[in-house]
Amino acid sequence: MKRLKILIQLGLILVFAFGCGPAKFVYKSPEIESPKGSGLVLAYRNVEDQREDRKIDEAYKSKNPVKDVERIIEEEIRSTGLFEKVFLVSEEQLNDQSYLKENNVRFLMGSVLKELKWEVPKYGAKVTGAMAATFLTGLIGGLIYGSINTDVNGNIILKVSVTDVSTGKLYIDKEYVGRCTERKAMLSCDTPETKATVVGNSLKSAMDQFKSDLIEVVNGRSNETARESSGQPPESGK
Question: Where do the DSSP E strands lie in the chain?
Fold first, then answer.
């Protein structure tokens, strides 16, 4: 019995220190709307990874969440229903004006991932407290300590640019900051599933902000084109 208690105590410590096995990227995918017949095409570049802290990658089975971010960006753009086609372009294709023209690319998007991480305030102190509670008071004390709720934060910073290929005009050049905070028991605050959940929710927040701007840009550009075609002067201040 004593040996069993020791093993359980060690198990609690390992849960705090290392969590469980790696997770899939957690994200609530949007419903994809059918294109509205606009004929517009958007091409996007690979996400440039400029993160200084990449420890979150170990929480994922793929070890490469940036690829999931790229997939999600395309899904979210498609979900607006604004574009007949959305596709990824290589750096070589990006600099080939004839290729862009042949594929009727109207908008070109680039993105830079500056931050993608999970945080628990004063996490080191909380792990130390869990270990101390388990060793000093045994299994019950460790479970009581581990059941206390704590804030778990997901953070993302994604810089996005959107350019009109025909005019070279830069319509979007902005950092989108996504933040998500959930309350979790300390025993589950460090699991890959928890990390993937708060990070996925923070990305959703950033994507919602970006989509709102993109819709405004595309609708504004369409109105501007319509005025030009009819010979009307542009709206004041634009």
Answer: 41-44, 48-49, 85-88, 107-119, 149-164, 170-185
Model confidence pLDDT, tens digit, residues 164-189? 998 999 999 999 999 999 887 766 67
Report pLDDT digits (tens) over 83-113: 999 999 998 998 888 999 999 999 999 999 9
Other CB atoms within 10 A of residue 226 CB: 10
Return the number of other C-beta atoms located less than 10 Å from residue 188's C-beta: 17
Pairing assessment for the beta strands 170-185 and 41-44 based on DSSP bridges: unpaired
- CATH fold, domain 32-223, is Rossmann fold (3.40.50)
Q: Residue 231 burial by CB count (10 A; 0-12/13-18/19+): exposed, middle or buried?
A: exposed
Residue ranges of domains in the chain? 32-223
Q: Tokens for 238? A: 């634009």
Tokens read off for 222: 């369409």
Tell me the CA end-to-end span of the chain in Å, nearest whole number.
77
The SS3 call for residue 170 is strand
Parallel, antiparallel, or unpaired: how do β-strands 48-49 and 107-119 relate? parallel
Q: Which of 64-78, 194-208, 214-228 has the lowest mean pLDDT?
A: 214-228
pTM for this model (two decimals): 0.78
For position 32, what pLDDT does the model report? Answer: 86
The secondary structure of residue 38, as a DSSP letter, is: -
